Amino acid sequence: MSAQSASLIPTTVVGAGSWGTALAIAIARNGHPVFLWGRDADHLAAMQQSRSNERYLPGLPFPDSLQLEPNFEKAVSQAKHVLVSVPSVAFSDMLLKMKPFLKPDTPVSWATKGLTPETGRFLNDTASDILGESHPLAVISGPSFAAEVAKDLPTAVTVASKDEVFCQALAKAMHRPTLRVYTTDDVLGVQIGGTVKNVLAISAGISDGLGFGANARAALITRGMAEILRLASSLGAQTETMIGLSGIGDLILTCTDDQSRNRQLGLAIGRGLSIQDAVTEVGKTVEGMHAAREVLTRAKQVDIEMPIVEQVCKILFEGYEPRQAVQALLCREQKAETLVSFKK
To answer: In terms of pLDDT, which residue wins out, 162 or 341?
Structure first.
């Protein structure tokens, strides 16, 4: 990367939902010119008028260096760095839409947590296939709710990239007193943590919705972490990543705080709502629903057990009653609690 591209000026954020807007605000607070694009032209016009995203982050004004850009071609072509924040189901299509307008070697990052639908592939593999090898790639993850980042509350996240120059430049662009940014080259591990925790948060929400209490929630989080560790070990991720921000940190946050859409879905299901009614009640994309079957497929490919993920899939897609699924977990054979041995 050149010195100019390493400065990440200007940045275009693609996706004007809560998380894309929060990241745009965070980068703009550091003085970087930021352009925010979203697919809803009326929403962009309303944000331009109010200088805030009242739909998703009400009452939080935009920094002066954050501008709305309704023209997609212009938004992408003028960027020295593009940050994608769209649901995983739209990730591939968005990269395909961006590709004709990206300048050569423009770095691309994303804050999407999930897998490529129907293929179960990690997003970095999908991005490499679509964009080619000339664009440095990075993923942003960690325990972070959009509203708290937008409110400038203390938060820590991880940026993962195989391109060290881009990784450090992106971290520097985001880092501020209230947003601590760590870096790693373990792109796979960061994606595993950010994906599986959403599925496990549904299970924690179901448990709490059923009224099973704090003990059950703690057990689900702990044994869920064991499932993450098994999958990560089998796929070759780094130990440090899974016990860091994008692993255990994100898992704890998503399983315990009601700002989590995945937990909200589980709570609604545990209270007795149908899956469709629960989805409607949440009213926003629930990444854990999209990821659950894909995660289970990956687990079967490497021949490991993920019983909590399996029961979440049965509840979501096979009509299992939540209490029936919990009973299946409780009736598993008694055994020793063992640690995962990571590959060196």
So the answer is: 162
